[in-house]
Amino acid sequence: MAIMPDNFEYSVAIVCALPLEMAATTAMLDETHRMPRWQDPRDKNNYTLGRMGQHYIVIACLPDGVYGMTAATSLITWMISSYRNIKFALIVGIGGGVPSTSHDIRLGDVVVSKPRGTSPGIIQYDFGKAVNGNIIPNASLDMPPKVLLTAMSSLAADHMMSGNKISSHISKMLQDYPLMQERFSYPGAEKDLLYEANYNHDADIPTCDHFKSQSTVQISTTEVQAPPSPSFILTDRFHLKGSISLAALVLDRRYPNQDTFVSSKVSLQPGGDFSVSVDQNFNELVGTCAKSSPAFKKALAKFFFPSSTKGIEGDIQVVSTQSSVYTLLQPRTLFNKISGTIEFQNWLGDAWAGKKPLYFVVGYRTVTDAQFIGKEIKSLSNRRIPQNISYKPRYNTDGERVYAICFRKVKFERSPKGTVQVLGSTNRWRVFNKQRGHALDSELEHIISADLCDDEEVGTNEFGVLPPLL
């Protein structure tokens, strides 16, 4: 935890109605702070304190089982008595949405309210009356402060130029809090359901899966931008960005630019097929602390001295003018499109016959004009520097280089002829295997289907980037 600021330094409040919402909000903090030094004796709220960017944040949740405007007003009133420099409060929570022609709302979207015309952006559900089947507002909440509206305009412009960083934020959250993986990861487009307006949900049943077939509206399915698995694997060579392709199929993750398949039928377009989030002035530590494996230390040593396997101490600092994360937006849809091509099926023959694993590149991180700085390394006897002299080695790269890659494993299922009724799917095809060793050689027909595995854990690493594969 960081040093505890004074109460008056906290200027932003975040209010959540559910512990689920508070957990997600707290996980987004860049740092957390200790309990407050002072709190109004009459203030019974429980707070989580921290920093997000340059802002000091106070997070509070409504009492368990107590909801509504009265509870929220009481919470904010007592919060201001303890943190008197609060400039504004944000309501952060989960909710449902209905897609329209102007707003294609999908599961996993981040929605930010903003005023339009006479609407302040948030409509209180009981501030209105029904007239001829329409809801007519008869009161409204106050408009957001101007400082938030101008910040929203700047953020929208930044997203137009550089894209958003939501994927990288969520990936970091799952790296920092692995237990959140199950409940806070994107569950897939198949869970993005739109129910009929007249359907009444049973409050005693947590999900409505049993009734979704007759109660849901058919909507076109698409994959929202899901963050790659936290398992970004550090490359043992810093390949030029042009030599590693998104949506490539790789037989050996150690050599992502060799024995790969890149479809000539699919042309990836930024924004439509993949997103790019950019961090300027990138600075990250890759750990070689006591918790790191000897293999990791050995691999990092190769960056500095190819023949050296000893002497690395401390962390490796990665400094770059820019770091970018490239992420496929619809990996499964894209894979199905590629796997349905004849050129892929022809290329796959050797891999399938040899029962080799196959991996799909769904994202990678790059660094531009990077410098890798070792905190301390001891010279060896075969170096020009006198033996056992400690110094900081530096390894420089030029241009945009691939720093770490995220893979999804391809899973195959084989069924005898006749068990699969529909061959129209692009990721299913027929293969024929020769059966030898019998009185008469025979040819056995199989139906092969291929799909991407769910995000897999290929290892653990407390720094968010896995060691190279040795």
UniProtKB/TrEMBL annotation:
An example GO BP is:
nucleoside metabolic process
Report the InterPro entries cross-referenced here: NLR-like (IPR053137), Nucleoside_phosphorylase_sf (IPR035994)
Q: Which GO terms describe its molecular function?
A: catalytic activity
Highest taxon in the source lineage: Eukaryota
Q: Which SUPFAM superfamilies match?
A: Purine and uridine phosphorylases
- This chain's protein is named Nucleoside phosphorylase domain-containing protein
Which species expresses this protein natively? Orbilia oligospora (Nematode-trapping fungus)
Q: What is the lineage of its organism?
A: Eukaryota, Fungi, Dikarya, Ascomycota, Pezizomycotina
